[in-house]
């Protein structure tokens, strides 16, 4: 077997493992990432001599900028433990260029996404029905687990809808089951904030699909989705969580009670906004933010509940209070770059004859769903403060981009 063939197989395995094992095992997303990094190191003499497309350089640039931003978390304390997050961003850089040279087959991504979504539901059912947990949390916390399960379900749904005619009947049923199980995993996690991502992803996806594959199939897909939502809404835990959220918000407004999940978030947001406006350009820094919170609580200027977490439970506000407006702009660039690279333009989704390439369209929509979902998740959670949020995004983006570049360049199909 030639080196080219060997490295391509490693990329295929990494593509399948990253999403496929994400929710099945503790740090399941790390196995595929480790394989991709090992492949990048071993194959460096090959991919270093190959010119990379402009898209790869843009993705690498924004990853490197975010690594520098996270390095600032060391502040003046010299806390080398803070290097854990920026190190992940730097280690993803060689994988970007390696994957441009040894791109995975899209079919491996599709298999991994479906397996990952199924894992979200099955692990959730096992934990709640067999182990008796009140909330499914997989092998991370309930919010991260539920949000990733929802994202994988959305991706599976897009694959089913776009390439419906390509799949055999048994493949359609398996994809539909993956969508349902991914939704079940999200519901069993009781992660309400993650459901806000649907407000962003569904309208954008429906609009893009209507422009490309036609409104008829989109309407059918939306009807099927609505049916699935109705089914999931019948789960007692879903209705209870929505009722609880409304009650907690009302209690906070009327009595200032910040002991609840919603109340605590609102208290964090209010303090972060007040502090951020005092230092809008530079922010307080991670250490300065924590120290100032302690000082304000001691002085009676803030509620003690804000000391519970080191972040704000909102991605934008967390960067605003710690790194100022420049941190917020860099976060927007981080997500905006992925949106621009995956947006389904005619050049990306049409073949030489001008017809829609369903495989390329699927890759674009899966790519677009990632930053949109992460923005939605970030409304009520600092998703990038957790290993799972960083690892999935950092390695899934290059995998999808590489598969898309392979498709556009007319690379060989699945073997």
Question: Can you describe what's shown?
Answer:
- It contains 17 helices and no strands.
- The mean pLDDT is 87.
- The chain starts with a helix and ends in a 7-residue tail after the last helix.
- The chain folds into 2 domains: 3-239 and 317-408, no CATH class; 243-316, no CATH class.
- The longest helix is centred in the C-terminal third of the chain and has 28 residues, at 315-342.
- The chain has helices at residues 3-20, 29-42, 44-47, 54-71, 84-101, 106-130, 142-162, 169-189, 197-212, 215-233, 236-255, 261-278, 285-298, 315-342, 346-349, 358-377, 387-408.
- With 415 residues, the protein is an all-alpha fold.
Q: Can you lay out the helices and strands and say which pair or pack?
A:
Elements: H1 3-20, H2 29-42, H3 44-47, H4 54-71, H5 84-101, H6 106-130, H7 142-162, H8 169-189, H9 197-212, H10 215-233, H11 236-255, H12 261-278, H13 285-298, H14 315-342, H15 346-349, H16 358-377, H17 387-408
Helix pairs in contact: 1-2, 1-6, 1-17, 2-5, 4-5, 4-14, 4-17, 5-17, 6-7, 6-8, 7-8, 7-16, 9-10, 9-16, 11-12, 12-14, 14-16, 16-17
Low-confidence stretches: none
Query: How many β strands by DSSP?
Result: 0
Q: Considering DSSP H and I runs of 4 or more, what fraction of the residues is helical? A: over 70%
Major sheet summary line: none
- Tally of separate domains: 2
Structural class: mainly alpha
User: Roughly what fraction of the amino acids lie in strands?
Assistant: under 5%
Regarding quaternary structure, what we see is single chain
Q: Helix-strand pattern, N to C?
A: HHHHHHHHHHHHHHHHH
Which shape, going by the Cα principal axes? Answer: globular
Radius of gyration: 22 Å
Mean pLDDT: 87
Q: Give the CA-CA distance, first to last residue.
A: 14 Å
By DSSP (H or I, 4+ residues per run), the number of helices equals 17
């Amino acid at each position: 077997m030639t080196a080219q063939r060997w490295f391509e197989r490693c990329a295929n395995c990494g593509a399948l493992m990253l999403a496929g094992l994400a929710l099945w095992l503790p740090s399941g997303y790390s196995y595929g990432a480790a394989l991709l990094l090992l492949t990048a190191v071993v194959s460096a003499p090959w991919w270093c001599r190959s010119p990379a497309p402009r898209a790869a350089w843009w993705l690498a640039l924004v990853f490197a900028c975010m690594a520098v931003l996270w390095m600032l978390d060391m502040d003046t304390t010299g806390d080398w433990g803070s290097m854990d997050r920026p190190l992940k961003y730097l280690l993803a850089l060689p994988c970007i260029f390696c994957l441009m040279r040894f791109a995975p087959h899209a079919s491996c991504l599709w298999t991994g996404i479906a397996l990952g979504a199924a894992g979200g539901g099955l692990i959730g059912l096992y934990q709640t029905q067999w182990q008796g947990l009140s909330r499914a949390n997989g092998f991370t916390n309930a919010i991260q687990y539920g949000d990733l399960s929802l994202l994988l379900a959305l991706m599976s749904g897009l694959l089913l809808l776009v390439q419906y005619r390509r799949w055999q009947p048994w493949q359609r049923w398996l994809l539909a089951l993956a969508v349902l199980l991914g939704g079940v995993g999200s519901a069993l996690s009781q992660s309400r904030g993650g459901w806000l991502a649907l407000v962003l992803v569904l309208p954008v996806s429906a609009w893009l699909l209507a422009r490309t594959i036609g409104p008829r199939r989109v309407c059918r897909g939306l009807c099927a989705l609505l049916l699935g939502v109705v089914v999931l809404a019948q789960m007692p835990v879903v209705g209870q969580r929505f009722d609880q959220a409304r009650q907690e918000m009302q209690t906070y407004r009327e009595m200032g009670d910040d002991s609840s999940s919603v109340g605590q978030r609102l208290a964090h947001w209010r303090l972060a906004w007040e502090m951020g406006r005092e230092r809008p350009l530079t922010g307080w820094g991670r250490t300065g933010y924590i120290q100032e919170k302690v000082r304000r609580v001691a002085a009676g200027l803030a509620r003690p509940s804000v000391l519970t977490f080191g972040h704000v439970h909102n991605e934008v506000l967390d960067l605003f209070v710690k790194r100022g407006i420049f941190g917020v702009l860099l976060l927007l660039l981080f997500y905006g770059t992925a949106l621009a690279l995956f947006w389904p333009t005619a050049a990306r989704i049409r073949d030489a004859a001008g017809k829609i390439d369903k495989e390329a369209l699927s890759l674009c929509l899966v790519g677009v769903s990632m930053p949109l979902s992460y923005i939605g998740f970030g409304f009520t959670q600092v998703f990038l403060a957790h290993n799972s949020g960083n690892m999935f995004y950092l390695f899934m983006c290059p995998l999808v981009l590489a598969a898309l570049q392979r498709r556009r360049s007319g690379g060989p199909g699945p073997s």
